[in-house]
Amino acid sequence: MSPPAGADNKRLNDGVAVNVHTIHRQQNCSEDVVVNPQLQLAAEWHTNDVLNNRALNGDTGSDGSSVQDRANAAGYRGTVAESVAINPALAISGIEILRQWYSNPAYLSIMRDCAYTQVGVWSANSLDRTVVVAVYGRPQ
Question: How far is residue 124's CA from residue 71's CA, in Å, rounded to a whole number?
Fold first, then answer.
């Protein structure tokens, strides 16, 4: 397994959150999408799990956890959904992330859902794999 690259992905993570906000605006959603630290923590956990467990390629964690399980464990109270992007390279661009998510009808539907007004995004890299996870929240 390749070691983590140790890059600072804050700009990439923030850019994904901004893109989700833009998609909401295109859908005429009335509320802003805001970053939620609990959702970001849930996204971080799953990102690291997918990065380090090559058999994973979606929403279920190596321990069988769902996105709702991880959000609950992070202290989030509300309904959640998730999108995952994996690129078999050291890096991924915002355009590549959106291409993957737009081509997945379930992920596109989640991104367009105006009820998801909160988001947490995390990404991590190794020399041969980049993973990006966005967790979307509908607060109670």
Answer: 19
